[in-house]
Amino acid sequence: MDGTLADTERDGHRLAFNRAFAEAGLDWEWDVALYGDLLAITGGKERMRHYVERYRPDQRRPDLDELIVRLHAAKTRHYTSLVAAEGIPLRPGVRRLLDEARARGVLLAIVTTTTADNVVSLLQHALPRDADRWFAVIGAGDVVAKKKPAPDIYHYVLDRLGVAPAECIAFEDSENGLRSALAAGLTTVVTITDYSRTHDFRGAAVVLDHLGEPGNPCHVLGGTAALDGAMQIDLGVLERLLPAA
């Protein structure tokens, strides 16, 4: 979701966190560089707890767990308002590939650690209003106890789709996401972001700058598979990446 469908982290979630902190009267401020470091921790509540433990031990307090829950709810409210007011565009090639997959009857799912409200907000403002119904399963938020890089969220979605890992392609943008998908047995395509360009993507089928559009070709940055000169990722390319191909 975040970083894969749209580049939402720096000027979306980060700003929403900071607005929630200010609203609560906290002097916490996550600048661009610090937020990049914090992204190594998956999950917003987990990220805040890590921030306090590592960067602000002076902020340890008996009600920290309750505070984090309140801050996360406020952050979600600020994020959905920001998306509604300003919008966050999908990354190159995402809408094209979604449309092709839907036309061919390919099952689609979202596998994310962000909240369901954040998912729906982004989809409804970047795509038609019913876009959340394009996806057979949306695995989001706290539906599993262990977040990425654990594979639990992928297992959750695969079980509900009723398909085997070898039949699926995962799309990720971070090392934690890749580790999660690989641990679930999924062939994985990575599209990097500014925050993740230095991550370790060993094991990815292919690592790209984006999925490609007519007039805006994708560029292969790494991975184990060759695209045979393809300028954009389409279903034909993805089918060749599957183990059975």
Pick out its properties.
single chain, 245 residues, alpha/beta, DNA polymerase, domain 1, Rossmann fold, 2 domains, four-stranded mixed beta sheet, two-stranded parallel ribbon, 9 helices
**Low-pLDDT runs:** none
Instruction: Look up the CATH topology of the largest domain.
Output: Rossmann fold
How many runs of DSSP E, i.e. beta strands?
A: 6
Tell me the CATH architecture of the largest domain: 3-Layer(aba) Sandwich
Count of individual helical segments: 9
Kindly provide the name of the CATH class of the largest domain.
Answer: Alpha Beta
Estimate the helix proportion, in percent.
40-55%
What's the average pLDDT? 95
Topology:
Blueprint: H1 9-23, H2 32-38, H3 44-55, H4 64-86, H5 94-103, E1 109-111, H6 116-126, E2 137-139, H7 152-161, E3 169-172, H8 175-183, E4 187-191, E5 206-208, E6 220-222, H9 235-241
Parallel strand pairs: 1-2, 3-4, 4-5
Antiparallel strand pairs: 5-6
